[in-house]
């Protein structure tokens, strides 16, 4: 579907009674192949084309979507959207994004499209190599399989205010899950990577071997007594500690008054020297886009600058509620109102690698797996189930399990110390993080 057809949809919506409107077209193709124990297990192919329409009548709005994009279906979709908007409750904050905030071309070249499209046979080979790598690790006794996939997606937006833009991206993914040990002592470990270009993926065997090692290192884990000790969150999961921050500074949360950071704008939240950078224009970035889902230009910014919280994450609606301007963080699907999201976040590095953080901490917990987080969004009280490695005098002494780590995020953020081992593994990345003196609940 091209811009002309979307313009026709928007024009037809205006003729049908809408004051303003925006149309979105999303197209996705994907192919995924899974193997287990050396045998082909699943081949899944998907192709989807969907049209979404949001219309505004005064302060009322409605959003509809459909996968049938024939002329007859488009006419019914437009009719339904306008009828729903006339019956919708009034929302003084619902509108298209302001015209002066819209992205203007030419858009930055982000190199998000890989022209290489792997065949099912190629993906099967990659999945097999990953699983073979995992099963080659001493101590691995079984496998949950390897999976390789490819996808290509396009998002196109046209509004009655004159905005027209599209961005497209490809994705290549490879993952593997291994099992070590026997019976009640079995442990699982996994590894996976996703990139925009196939050439940027690590070797399939390397991914498998890392999955195998992560399973084996968890064998013979012991329980520990409850205590208070330093905790290090390894780099591959450290952003999980930062995730609640994003919800707490989202415009909708601030507008509702349901955020533990609602009074912290332009205040010191992290230690000096700590920054959280958002770069939506990172070349080949998994979160890169030239504009947000309302067509507003995206920009590089420091959400945390030298420890200071600099901004809320705002879409058009939440910005209006707060008397501010949108920050280009709108995120929406084809149906429903906009939410907010970020893209390509990076936590700044410190001066010590993971071994150095352990040496500084002396005795404590290195978290390698997290599950079941719980958060009180109003107070920042946070806890998470985890397993990992215990260390004493800066040296690993063995795996530990069935642990809950808890604390208040306002206090945690103020005291966290980033390491130097930053790896760009996904859209959001951080080095290992040390937090001194967290409550650890064990046996």
From TrEMBL:
Domain Metalloprotease TldD/E central: residue ranges: 121-219
Ranges for domain Metalloprotease TldD/E N-terminal: 21-85
SUPFAM superfamilies the record matches: Putative modulator of DNA gyrase, PmbA/TldD (SSF111283)
One GO term describing the cellular component: cytosol
Pfam families, per the entry: PmbA_TldD_1st (PF01523), PmbA_TldD_2nd (PF19290), PmbA_TldD_3rd (PF19289)
Top-level taxon: Bacteria
GO annotation, biological process: proteolysis
Ranges for domain Metalloprotease TldD/E C-terminal: 227-442
GO MF assignments: metallopeptidase activity
Gene3D superfamilies for this protein: PmbA/TldD superfamily
Annotated family: Belongs to the peptidase U62 family.
Name used for this protein in its record: Modulator protein
Native source species: Caulobacter henricii
Source species taxonomy: Bacteria, Pseudomonadati, Pseudomonadota, Alphaproteobacteria, Caulobacterales
